[in-house]
Structure formats: structure tokens, C-alpha cells
Amino acid sequence: MITTLIRYFNLTFLTLLILVMLSFGLAYFFPGDPIINLMGTNKLDSQPFLMLSSQQTNIFMQFWYYVQALLAGEWGVSFATGKPLYQDIMRLLPATLELSIYAVTIALILG
Questions:
Q1: Which domain holds residue 2?
Q2: Contact (Cβ atoms closer than 8 angstroms) between residue 45 and residue 52
Q3: pTM higher than 0.70
Q4: Rounded to whole angstroms, how far apart are CA atoms 79 and 25?
Q5: Contact 17/27 with Cβ under 8 angstroms?
Q6: What SS3 state is found at 77?
Q7: Total domain count for the chain?
Q8: Could you tell me the pLDDT band of residue 31, with boundaries at 50, 70 and 90?
Q9: Rounded CA gap, 70 and 20, in Å?
Q10: Same-domain check for residues 51 and 8
């Protein structure tokens, strides 16, 4: 029983680590400077972004800062609404959970 729980915990941790690494790498898959790409098409003040660009460290330190920000709840701003992403997720989470409960209920009834 304990070994099964440990195995599932390890698989969950490995899956989350791979997802975090893939989401971090998305900024580097697109051509051009990642900082300029993250600015988007909005008319933002470019000074903070240029400061970030000049302070670039190696990719491992950038990944470490990315993980720290994720764990601290600093998930950035939504491109669609311009609000913090955490607020958008919390606004849409109840509807998502409701839909998933309906789907599981129908799946259990139909077999």
C-alpha cells in the first residue's frame, strides 16, 4: 500500500515537473527575444522589460526564478483579459468543476 502511494506520488511529481518545464520552454520556442515576445502587442512601458533583458542569467537560474514565482502564486497577467491569471482561474474554476462533475456522473450512469 505504502509503495503504491509512493509510486503515485513520484509519478505526479514527475508529471508536474515536466509540465512546468514545458510551460517555461514555450517562451523560447518562438523566434525572437523572449522578453520582447512577452510584451505582446499592448502599449506597455518597455523600460522594465529592457531591464529584465539586460539582467538575463543562464537558463537554469531563469527556470529557478520561474518555479519560485509559480510557487509564490505570481502567475502573470492574462493576455485575454489583462487581469492577473489567478483571478481568471478562480472565476472560471467553479464552472469547470461543475462540468466535470456532470461528466463523471453521466459516465458512471452509462457505464
A1: 1-72
A2: no
A3: no
A4: 18
A5: no
A6: strand
A7: 2
A8: confident
A9: 9
A10: yes
